Amino acid sequence: MELAGKTAFVSGGGGGIGGGMAEAFVEKGMKVVLADVQLDYAKEEAARLGEQALPLALDVTSLDSWAAAREAAIARFGRVDVLCNNAGVSTTWTSLDQFSPEEFERVMAINVTGVFYGIRTFAGDMRQRGSGHIVNTSSMNGLSPYRGLATYSASKFAVFGLSDAVRDELAQDGVGVSTLFPGLVRSRMSMNRASGAQGSGVSREALEARMMDPLRVGRAVARAIETDAPYIVTHPEHKAHFEARCRALLDAFDAGLEPG
After folding, report:
1. What is the pLDDT of residues 12-68, one digit of tens each?
2. Could you tell me the strand order of the sheet in which 82-85 lies?
3. Which of 82, 199, 245, 249 is most buried, judged by most C-beta within 10 A?
4. The one catalytic residue among 117, 146, 152, 231
5. How far apart, in whole angstroms, are the C-alpha atoms of residue 2 and residue 216?
6. Residues 84-94, buried b or exposed e (16+ Cβ, 10 A)?
7. Strand (E) positions, the chain?
8. Does the structural domain 7-255 have CATH classification 3.40.50.720?
9. CB-hemisphere CA count at 13 Å for 256?
10. Which pLDDT value is given to residue 207?
11. What is the pLDDT of residue 201?
């Protein structure tokens, strides 16, 4: 997809990866809608990016909020060509059996249902036009789960599976779908996770040192949209861990139900 002159709608656009996406899109000559539950954060990003950026309040767990945001985006820019379902929340490093049911439901509502609502809101317009692209933010934890982050990993694995299925569903209508698998990227969410790193066995300083510049991620997302790439991986150093997990799964296929 040629990006110049197009409009992108970014949930969780008030900073971090969402802010990096928006900045990369503006570099490409796009207009951007920065939608965030914290409107002040979205306004700060929009002020930095200029008149081509529109800040909006968005609660991704509310279809009514999505509908209002879509209406405002179309009123300002005419249409939305790219949807980035990027809003999400992390969790504290907690054993799953100690995790509260209320917090589990909140994480799923934001990280999974929020992605569904975004697609539900914008995919129909894209299908009718025969063009568009959707980017769903999963995580490295959506490829390789880690102890203490079972709830977060479950939500991000769900985004991965949902995205692959939707990519197949929308391809015939000219709409692309990419899944973003970021490692640690400099953001409020990552800083909050680093502050509670004692449960991970990794120091806060070590986690902060790994954090990538959000603009680098945003530029990778822009390239993926241009080429209709299915996956975007930010931190290749995790490849060996993922390969080991895949190898174990493939070995299970080979072993069969009754080895020998």
Report:
1. 999 999 999 999 999 999 999 999 999 999 999 999 999 999 999 999 999 999 999
2. 53-57, 31-36, 7-11, 82-85, 132-137, 175-181, 231-233
3. 82
4. 152
5. 19
6. bbbbbbbbbbb
7. 7-11, 31-36, 53-57, 82-85, 132-137, 175-181, 231-233
8. yes
9. 3
10. 63
11. 56
24's tokens: 């990369």
Place of tokens 């991965």: 160
Question: Euclidean distance between the first and final Cα of the chain, in Å?
Answer: 51
Q: What is the DSSP letter of 60?
A: T
Angle, to 10 degrees, between the axis of helix 16-27 and the axis of helix 39-49?
30
Encode pLDDT of 156-199 as tens digits: 999 999 999 999 999 999 999 999 999 887 766 655 555 555 55
DSSP for 76-140, please give it: HHS---EEEE-------S--GGGS-HHHHHHHHIIIIIHHHHHHHHHHHHHHHHT-EEEEEE--G
Amino acid in the structure at residue 45: E
- The string over 44-62, giving b where at least 16 C-beta atoms fall within 10 Å of a residue's C-beta and e elsewhere, is bbbeebeeebbbbbbbbbb
Q: 146 an active-site residue?
A: no
